[in-house]
Amino acid sequence: MTLKELYRKAVEVGMDNDPRGKDLVQKDLEQRKKDYEKLDADEKEFFDAESLSNPYADSRILNGTGDEEVSSALVGVDMEVGEILLALALRQRGEDVDLILAHHPEGRSLANLYQVMGMQADIQARFGVSISMAESLLEKRVSDVEKRLMPTNHTRAVDAARLLGIPFMNLHTPSDNMVASYLQKTFDEQKPYTVGDILDILRQIPEYRQAAGNGAGPKVIQGSTKHKAGKVFVDMTGGTEGPKEIFAGIAQSGINTVVGMHFSEDHRKEAEKHHLNIVIAGHISSDNLGLNLLLDRVIPGGFKVLGCSGFTRVSRA
């Protein structure tokens, strides 16, 4: 398949598994097209036209025309200059590396990471949080993340791939959508009785079981394994952490336990105020799960995957 075909398929699968529901994603794309049509010529020059078909600004082909044939990839969670050089070294050793595939954003994907955060409000609204509250609280957090990213030297890895002539792509939110939907469905079906049961369920999943063996397994950071799990909300997509103040709305909605990739200490303290249970499934292990689920859906049989930078291939195909 071509790089462009792989990219398009990954975005489509990500949309199919978006926790907001595909109808809402399509409405978002339609609104972007309307906004684009209202721009004058000068503004259109700098508009990200790719956003008219891909709702995830943090996932892009970073280097390459898209017409390259790809049948193998070096895949990792963070693919920076060191990993780009690793791809070159593997090629020189005779390994087939047609593509460098990252999970976390680089280049333009990193600069525009904040743009995907708006989906958090819609996801929370589906669980009963007031949409006006979620959007209002999110606005400042989005602005803070945008400002934090502005001074970042975000093209370093992309420049390295370009100079070495290696196709480079990252898939962030499509992958995070996969793990969020997968875990939410799992908990909805298995209905864990206690928070401890949530840990047991997670540890049966290969990616989390491996992480537990490496000392980075799922952990309760707020609450107790003996507490009732109640209504479980999986919070694992939407760019990065949302505002800590949203925990008030989450508690009011009837959610009792939040399962996430990572939360800051400030987030934990805010959750404690509202008597919420917080389970950290694990950051890199969750990224592994999301990437594996996505790859199962988008790569053809015989496609070679070399894992590095925290990624281990587990196929469910």
Short description, anyone?
This protein is of the alpha/beta class.
Count the E strands: 9
| Sheet with the most strands: spatial strand order | 1-4-3-2-9
User: Rough shape?
Assistant: globular
Structural class determined from secondary elements = alpha/beta
SSE succession: HHHEEHEHHHHEHHHEEHEHEHE
Q: How far do the termini sit from each other?
A: 18 Å
Strand content: 5-15%
Q: How can the largest sheet be summarized? A: 5 strands, mixed
Catalogue the unreliable spans.
none
Report the total helices: 14
What is the residue-averaged pLDDT? 96
Please estimate the helix content: 40-55%
Q: From the alpha-carbon coordinates, what is the Rg to the nearest angstrom?
A: 20 Å
Describe this structure in words.
- By secondary structure, this protein is an alpha/beta fold.
- It is built from 14 helices and nine strands.
- The protein has helices spanning 3-16, 22-37, 41-45, 81-92, 107-111, 119-126, 131-149, 156-164, 173-190, 195-203, 206-213, 246-252, 265-273, 283-298; strands at 60-63, 72-76, 99-102, 168-170, 219-222, 232-235, 257-260, 277-280, 304-308.
- The strands form two sheets. A five-stranded mixed beta sheet has the order 1-4-3-2-9, sandwiched between helices.
- Helix 9 crosses helix 14.
